[in-house]
Amino acid sequence: MSDAPPLDTPLLPHETYLRSWQPSLAVFAQRALLLGFATALALGGIGIVSWTQWLISLPILTVLYVFIFDDYSNWVAHRDERWHLTSQRMIFENAQSPEENASIPLSAISRLRLWFWWTLRIGLENGTATSIRYIRNPAEARRRILQAQSAFYGGDQ
């Protein structure tokens, strides 16, 4: 725990800052490489290109995936997002779009799902969902949020 949490949203009375997450460029790059590789593999697997053409096209398709298929703009849109876990809620902050800042009470979180190794999906009781994208070790984030929920409910969950 930290005395000065790295967040702009003021904490509520009796609320404690626990942890923060932000997108990682390394995780984003791994995802882009995987998806570019899968695209190249699919093209090679259906006979559009030969093995040598596929091998040559792999880095080209990866770059195309990142820049042409909007993946880079996706990174730009999410790179300034910050998620903060407190003893009472999840706080979302985006330096690029402060009007999007929001908080989710821990009691409103109904499910937490891992999406590959780069995203944690947060399902809410009202049926909507949001995601913490491109973070290192989303399984650890899930564990910490579940711990905070358990503590919030007095360990009865």
Automatic annotation (TrEMBL):
Transmembrane segments: 54-72
Sorted UniProt keywords: Membrane, Transmembrane, Transmembrane helix
Domain of life: Bacteria
Name by which UniProt lists this protein: DUF304 domain-containing protein
The species this protein was found in: Thalassovita taeanensis
